[in-house]
Amino acid sequence: IILEPVQEFTPRPRRESRPPPPDLLAQLDAYGAEREAEEPAPAAAAIEADPDHLWELVAEVVAGEGSDYKPLATLYQDFQLRARIQGLSRNVLELGPFHRMLATIRAGLDRERSESGDWKQAQAIAATLPEDVQGVFLLLARTALDGETCPGDEALARAYGTHSLGRARRQLNYLEEREVIVLQETPLGRRVAIVGLGWQTA
To answer: Which residue ranges does the record annotate as region Disordered (predicted)?
Structure first.
């Protein structure tokens, strides 16, 4: 028997698998990420500080419970928090200007009078004194400017940030030694004159 030659079976070439269709959403996400990396994000719009607004914020700090006896750093942090809540920079008012505005409000002046030439003279004298007695001097200056009765010991103590009346009274002697006030004890009470400005309490 003649056997027919067995035909060799040639396997059909396998089709190369096609790559999956591109994920369009992934491509869009990648494109967006590239654009964000190339283009800086727009800066948030800064809120300009209005002087009247700053005055109101500091006045709120002054009106806070127990603020007369809190350290300056604590009061400044309170102000910074209020400023951030209003969308302002926490450094919208530096510590020095904050302290001057704080002392001016405590002395009893309003925003308009605080810009007067007379008060700027008083602030210039206060700037030559240690920070802890500036509030006492400005309180005396304001009452002398308005011709009012000299502040009592309790008012001086609040301006100095102490509960000690004796300690507050000693600041009067210190201010007289610094030659920024003249202190007079009269039968009608204590009187204070501001050196160089000609103001005197009643």
So the answer is: 1-25
* CA dist list (Å): 60 to 4, 88, 106, 107: 111, 16, 11, 15
Task: Kindly indicate the confidence band of residue 188, based on its pLDDT and cuts at 50, 70 and 90.
Answer: confident
Count of C-beta atoms within a 10 Å radius of residue 121: 16
DSSP single-letter state for residue 21: P
Residue-wise pLDDT tens digits, 68-93: 999 999 999 999 999 999 999 888 99
CB 149 within 8 A of CB 186: no
Report the C-alpha gap between 172 and 78 in whole angstroms.
Answer: 30
- Quick one: CA dihedral 133, 134, 135, 138, positive or negative? positive
**Structure tokens given for 128:** 């030559």
